[in-house]
Amino acid sequence: MNCHSAMRPARSLRSLGTRTLVRRQHSSAIDALAFRPVLHQERSNSKKLNSGLRDTRRNNLKDDLERIGSSSATDYVQPAIRTLRPEALSASDYVHFPVNQEYCFVWDALAPQSSSSDPTTHDAQPFSSVRYSDPGTYFPAGLQGFFYYYVPLAPAPRTAGEVRFRKMHSSAPSAFSSGKDLEAAHGLPWRIQLPTIAGFDQHRTLRDILLRDGLVDEETMEIAAEMGRARAMRKETVSLIHSFRQPFYLDFGSPLHWWHFMGPDRLYFSRPMANIVSLKYRGERYPSPWLGSAICAFTKSKHPDHKHSRVINVTVLSIVDPVRRNPECPDEIYQLASKLPQERNLLHRGARAWALDLEECDPQRGEGFHVLFENEKLPPLRTGRLKGPPKESA
After folding, report:
1. SS (H, E, C) the chain
2. Is the pTM of this model over 0.85?
3. pLDDT digit string, tens, across residues 318-335
């Protein structure tokens, strides 16, 4: 969801408020910026390395700006927002997308004005650049609402928050609780998770707003930044899980499944597993009997034999792509797959529900899953429904 901008932002643009339209440069040039590698290093070497990285990013951005200077353009929304706290939102934080757009450049409306309009003169760009989802997907035309900071209702690590977009039919923040969160690919909420915000310079604007709002403190931001740097060295698109019943996307036809797990102060990276619905017969692993996908969640086993054990199941919450037979699965193996994945049911491998027993499995195979039990003991990050400011009396 993060990308660098292909724009040279002007000071005058930001002063025009939340519905300023800016020129979008040619998409190929923006994509070149969006996927520029960002290097990271552990804190012990960070001071020396970060100085070099800032110089590299600055030079790269200058080169890109020069390369795309004469590209064709269309209009993009560039909102300037004051807060991410739901109860403090106002009409000036309202965002409307009149056209489809891949990227959104978010400014801090309360940040001090810079004397320079050249983003390459700063250590970090003065706005956050975010994309809707996968390449070729868009914030849809007509979308309107508020960016805000979401934290889980269930007990979770303090780094489990994320920026989301609440879809609204009016600019009245008092109607916030009646809105719905924007969905991204696979039906999950569109979001930028705190480790990504904290660990990447292109999200400095969001980071500054979260700190100013008191939604995240400096210590939590630093822990999240360490998580973000660790995650950047792996595959960031892998689901990051911190709680039971937290939704994640599962492709039934994928050859491998794996997850990243968030503990109170660090991340754990599970070892990739063979497809969890594929069957192993006479020592040979066969392709999954199913194609399709679903939104799933890890749940604690309710089997009587597991009452005093740490056994984890997968529950299917909703079907995304219709489940169908995989033609690559041999007939004799398909006959053993007796349980079709269905909503509100446990996911099965063959005739039995898929289960991971943390007391019995290989420690490497169970890496990270233990935090699901440990995080249940943490205090909740919030105690009630997220609401906007109260409706003003007439």
Report:
1. CECCCCCCCCHHHHCCCCCCEEEECCHHHHHHHHCCCCCCCCHHHHHHHHHHHHHHHHHHHHHHHHHCCCCCCEEEECCEECCCCHHHCCHHHCEECCCCECEEEEEECCCCCCCCCCHHHCCCCCEEEEECCCCCCCECCCCEEEEEEECCCCECCCCCCEEEEEECCCCCHHHHHHCEECECHHHCECCEEHHHHHHCHHHHHHHHHHHHHCCCCHHHHHHHHHHHHHHHCCCCCCCEECCCCCCEEEECCCCEECCEEECCCCEEECCCEECCCCCEECCEECCCCEEEEEEEEEEECCCHHHCCCCEEEEEEEEEEEEEEECCCCCHHHHCCCCCCCCCCEECEECCEECEEECCCCCCCCCCCCCHHHHHHHCCECCCCCCCCCCCCCC
2. no
3. 999 999 999 999 999 998
